[in-house]
Backbone:
């Protein structure tokens, strides 16, 4: 293992985050505050509680998940796409660095940043609502697993993308809708029967549900199913990365 | 000298069908400066890229200090520093961090003293805290060199290091390359300027259309490259060259109206003065004269003919 290389990539990526600290942190925090104002105060005023939890508190896990997924995917995809775009990837390809080490460096940095932003949003949320965290260890586990899985997905997107449009396509067209339709702002049980069935095919449902369970102990689907779903998704992304590695797809000529 | 890089029957055809390398074999000796000389599109960058792991060759084998670049790639790559032809650099990062990053990437522990040495040698120390995008083109190229030297490579590839670079920087670059060679670094540079190859190299490899035409000691090769031809336009056409002028090896052209004389610009005496005197003595008067340098194209032709 070339640990110096992993460290170098990780440090370089984290430095990039700190260079753009304002936009990295301010914009997710600002949008979270807006969500609280719109969903929590305006709508929450009419919805008293969901499954016995105040609406403002109920949406916190979903909001954090939304940001975590977006941050993981965009950080990792941009992290590897940018060197491809400006050409500095030549150095990665000519260095004594394995694909696995490159992935650890980029995905590690992307996940770290995503988790940091998620925690900042959690802290912001405590200004608006009273929060309880029933299972803090599981909460951290869900944060970690989700951040790593979706950073892997982002890395794959960054490798695959041929231009900036493609880079933004998946977060915009796939991630955000899936989170909104995955019960981030409501309990699935509030939906009509057919939609409940459709929602079961949305992988994000299992994330949000499991994550919410770690806060309040209530869930749309059993926690075991949530954990299985995240693990499956993680395995899927790792498998895809393996395929890319073996074929040298879109990286080496 | 032992070969530090050995290239055997390397071939590469790009997806579009361009044959960029065709059966290239080459030994690069430890501690030498080798110049790869060839026109644009000859395959110089592809050859370097294949050795450095950027391009996957279709066939052939490369070893670096005995390490096969496909099987033993980690050991092979750790020894190589590469300065690419295009200036590609992370725009927002600071100079010194960019260089530190490269050192780490190549598996070396942090060493601030070495980083400082490299930056000073390239006159970048004062700019170490500048962002890369604030630098001039020449300085960006020096940052790329600093990156390549950050991990103390034993082999340095410079792909067209002086293309689009001003004269002062070019001299600096040449001086740096010599210093590195004195430290025992093997240097491979590509260029399409004959003068650059001449100035820098111990040996010169001539490459065209993906084929390595030959690799030759500079002094030997320069004999061909230093040749000029003198065209003498005569007042009266001649049937044949008079016996007295035989030693000059003159060639008759244009129905005897032109005599062509080949000479070596590097020779102490080119023989032009004596030739003109001898012509006058033989009663041949010259109306006009003209010299031309052998072009790279012509040299290729001569080389191919001679190596055939
Ligand atoms: N990525 C690529 N895809 C297709 N053709 C390429 C690629 N890179 C180089 N070529 C072609 O291969 C040939 C050799 O190119 P190159 O090695 O860059 O030559 P040089 O460095 O000597 O100018 C050229 O005809 C060039 O157009
Ligand atoms: Mg080139």
Residues:
């Amino acid at each position: 293992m070339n640990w110096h290389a992993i460290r170098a990539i990780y440090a370089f990526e984290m430095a990039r985050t700190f260079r753009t600290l304002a936009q990295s942190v301010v914009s997710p925090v600002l949008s979270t505050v807006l969500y609280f104002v719109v969903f929590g105060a305006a709508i929450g005023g009419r919805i008293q509680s969901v499954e016995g939890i105040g609406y403002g508190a109920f949406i916190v896990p979903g909001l954090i998940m939304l940001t975590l997924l977006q941050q993981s995917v965009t950080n990792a995809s941009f992290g590897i796409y940018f060197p491809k775009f400006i050409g500095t990837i030549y150095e990665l390809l000519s260095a004594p660095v394995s694909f696995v080490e490159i992935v650890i460096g980029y995905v590690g940095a992307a996940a770290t940043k995503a988790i940091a932003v998620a925690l900042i949003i959690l802290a912001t949320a405590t200004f608006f609502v009273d929060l309880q965290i029933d299972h803090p260890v599981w909460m951290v586990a869900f944060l970690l697993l989700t951040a790593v899985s979706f950073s892997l997905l982002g890395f794959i997107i960054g490798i695959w993308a041929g231009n900036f449009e493609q880079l933004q396509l998946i977060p915009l067209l796939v991630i955000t809708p899936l989170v909104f339709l995955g019960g981030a702002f409501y309990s699935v049980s509030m939906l009509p029967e057919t939609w409940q069935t459709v929602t079961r095919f949305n992988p994000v449902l299992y994330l949000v549900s499991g994550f919410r369970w770690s806060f309040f102990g209530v869930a749309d689907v059993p926690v075991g199913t949530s954990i299985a779903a995240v693990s499956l998704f993680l395995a899927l992304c790792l498998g895809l990365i393996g395929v890319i590695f073996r074929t040298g797809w879109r990286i080496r000529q | 000298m032992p070969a530090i890089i050995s290239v055997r029957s390397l071939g590469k055809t790009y997806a579009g069908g361009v044959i960029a390398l065709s059966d290239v074999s080459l030994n690069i000796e430890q501690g030498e400066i080798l110049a790869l000389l060839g026109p644009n599109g000859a395959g110089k960058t592809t050859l370097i890229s294949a050795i450095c792991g950027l391009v996957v060759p279709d066939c052939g084998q490369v070893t670096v200090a005995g390490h096969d670049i496909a099987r033993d790639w980690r050991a092979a790559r750790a020894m190589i520093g590469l300065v690419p032809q295009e200036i590609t650099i992370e725009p927002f990062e600071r100079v010194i961090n960019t260089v530190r990053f490269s050192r780490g990437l190549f598996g070396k522990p942090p060493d601030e003293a070495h980083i400082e040495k490299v930056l000073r040698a390239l006159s970048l120390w004062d700019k170490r805290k500048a962002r890369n995008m604030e630098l001039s083109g020449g300085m960006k190229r020096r940052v790329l060199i600093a990156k390549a030297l950050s991990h103390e490579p034993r082999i340095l590839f410079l792909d067209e290091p002086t293309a689009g670079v001003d004269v002062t920087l070019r001299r600096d670059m040449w001086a740096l390359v010599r210093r590195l060679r004195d430290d025992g670094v093997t240097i491979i540079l590509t260029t399409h300027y004959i003068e650059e190859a001449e100035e820098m190299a111990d040996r010169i490899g001539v490459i065209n259309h993906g084929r390595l035409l030959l690799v030759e000691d500079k002094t030997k090769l320069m004999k061909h490259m230093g040749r000029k031809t003198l065209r003498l336009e005569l007042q009266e056409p001649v049937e044949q060259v008079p016996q007295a002028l035989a030693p000059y090896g003159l060639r008759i052209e244009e129905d005897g109206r032109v005599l062509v004389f080949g000479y070596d610009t590097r020779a102490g005496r080119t023989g032009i003065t004596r030739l003109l005197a001898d012509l006058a003595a033989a009663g041949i008067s010259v109306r006009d004269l003209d010299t031309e340098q052998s072009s790279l194209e012509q040299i290729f032709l001569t080389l191919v003919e001679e190596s055939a």
